[in-house]
Records
---
Amino acid sequence: MKSIEGFRLAKRFEFGEVEVINFIRDKMFELERKGKRIIRMDMGDSNFDLPQEMKKGIEKALQSGKIKYPPQGGLPELREKLREKLKRQNKIHAEPEGILLTNGGMGGLFNTFFSLLDPGDEVILLQPFWSPLKYHCLYNDAKPIYVSLDENFQLDPDRIRKAITSRTKVIYINTPNNPSGSIFGREAIEEVAKIGLENRVWILSDEPYEDILFEGEHFSIASLPGVLERSVTTFSFSKTYAATGLRVGYAVTGNKDLAETLIHVDRQVSTGVNTLTQLALCSSEIDPNEIERMRKAYETRMELLYQGLSQLEGVSCVKPRGGFFMFPDFSSFIPQKVEGRSFFIADRLLEQGVAVVPGIAFGDGKSYEGHVRLNFSNLNESEISEALEIFQKTFLSAE
Ligand SMILES: Cc1ncc(COP(=O)(O)O)c(C=O)c1O
């Protein structure tokens, strides 16, 4: 990041990296400005609208005359509603004081790192991971320690165990996973919990895709004995309700000091989550069929994309079991001598009309060079078929 004529930015931004995603996005916007149609597989948004009840709830809240500063931590009736949801769905037995409304899942993640990290602390990031996490570590002068998932994007607890040092402060896990679509199994999660507890290391579990499953079950680490007090789990309404623009999520912890610190930080940074959305979440009972309809559509789109990619010779792809994304490996199409291989492939695809994110954005800056991340929640089936045709055309001509 640059300083202008001696007006220096904070030192914490001198980590010498520019967010990878932006290179491709800038070019994409430029092409769109010139009138080129781009199929957007790059972002984390769905093309579904908000559930009906949520819309009605927002309209009602707007007329209520109650759109004032929210209480710290969130509206008590909403925290109570979430307490019941956590108990029923996640088997997490939390007190309302440990359930905090956040500005998206992102707000919970950022505030947790800000509350826990000192300079020099190490954070175990299981890669591939959603790229903002790395920046959250770097902003706090903490050191990301990259531990790779295995070839099926499953977590290998032994790799985590080997990465623990006296400086390890947090282990970050994300299931269902962005970008790979994998779901971590209960046994592996139990091992992570053991490692965290034995080594007095916090666990940060990021679970915004908990409701978007195609196979298997979602298991929350904070449901295990003793973990809630030593962890934060972040959830979000962004993905379940296709509500990314509302910017609302929640964090849960059983640690009183940490809960108070998270509230303290939130008070100084954003003074809470907008009251309108909180009131709407309190009053509306979302029809589970609406959520299921979206989940089913994502599954159909995922299958279509996965089957299409599987027919392309030279592409390898682990089939997603949840979430919005697929993380195929196209490396056999990239000439060996090319530098910035995942950029090369993303750039080629962009020129043909499909925007994707280069794989290198999701790890230590060296890994996943043959990969790209594809979002399938934002496209209908005909757009996915169109994208597959473009993949085929691009890669056949690369031979
Ligand atoms: C893994 C992961 N965690 C957290 C988030 C945060 O989402 P939001 O802030 O919209 O709730 C995202 C969004 O894409 C994500 O992919």
---
Amino acid sequence: MSKGPLSGYRVLDMTQFESGTVCTEILAWLGAEVLKVERPGKGELGRYSQANPGVDTVGFLIMNMNKKSITINAKAPEGLEILKKLVKESDVIVENMGPGSMDKLGLTYEACKAINPKIIYASLKGFDQAGPYKDYPAFDPIATHTGVMVSATGLPEQPIKCGISVADSGTGTMLALSIISALLQREREGIGQRVDIAMQDFMICLSRSQWEPYYNNGKVPNRRVANGMPLEDVAPSDTYPCKPFGLNDYVHIYCSRHPGSKQWDNLCDVIGRPDLKQDVCPEMSTPRERFKNREMCDNAIKDWLKNYDKFTAMDILCKADIPAGALLSVDDITNDPQYYTKDRNIMVEIEHPQRGKVKIPGFAPKFSEVEVEYKCSPELGGANEEVFKDLLGYTDAQLAELKEKGAI
Ligand SMILES: CC(C)(COP(=O)(O)OP(=O)(O)OC[C@H]1O[C@@H](n2cnc3c(N)ncnc32)[C@H](O)[C@@H]1OP(=O)(O)O)[C@@H](O)C(=O)NCCC(=O)NCCS
């Protein structure tokens, strides 16, 4: 197996919390050397939680695998000098500080470009840097609210935000893709560049399917259909209860909205209701007719599901070519060995110095020529010696002085 596709590239990582850290973690999983810059003593904001102050958060473990941590006080002149040396030695800088923070530090794109003309300088913010909200801070829910998603999610009278940080992790992933593209262009044309992404803008793109119902029915506010099909009137399309009827005992069943699809007829065979097939039962003849008569459609499904748990129901339905998904929780995934196999490796068990063995999600894509290696998130300042001495050439005496001054 080869080394990671990004091996040989160095990333200066000035990210925090989820959005930016997800971006640099992807680059690290793909083999880049990621130097995570953290505040001396405290570390990155996402390391800390009120629940367990002395211990790295699980979120930090999940979003900072395969990185090296160095401590630098960017606000001390000596710290800034080290950062500038690292800009020279790096291929990429990634940051997601609040608007204006990098500029205040003197680390604008122009300043970094003057030091290293081929640098790829990547910034992630809540809002577009040329728009009217450019100075506003943002966490994930701000972006999902301002980027269409929440207006399309929930009950007709109640918008509901998503339970996972889709704007954070999604924007970080898109930024990683963009950085790799900029590196490819640099290989070809020899140019560095600035890459900016706003979480609101990413969410607008991610919500793109909402423009279909918007133009089709012109309804304002958007259709909000709970667990139904947001694009148009279709049934079956819902999350149905199964045995033993606990909090997460559900399966989602969705038959294609294409009227020529055989999925509904397949479902009728499985649930023992051939009388409801499209050609036989006018009320069930098209996805739209089934939506109009959805009580009849849903009751037939619910009757059948009374006898099955979500895993069995999913197996039976999918094997009969009916799209169905069990509602799987973190607990379901963490305790299922299928996610840990060598070929799959989407869940990994890492050994953390403070937390011991922890099972967390890894990297989804698979490569035929590369095996993604998983390393635990770094200890605060764990790579100080390696980076400051071996890469930048500082002596022990100089490092002691810098430490004394609180610069590292
Ligand atoms: C997420 C966010 C709202 C957090 O706001 P915050 O807690 O006030 O943190 P900020 O990033 O604004 O500020 C961090 C400060 O730490 C400083 N800092 C960061 N790393 C440092 C270091 N190594 N040494 C010294 N200071 C450091 C910054 O310079 C900044 O100082 P300033 O406020 O004087 O400019 C804000 O960072 C933001 O809007 N980021 C962009 C959008 C984003 O990524 N949001 C999702 C995060 S998951």
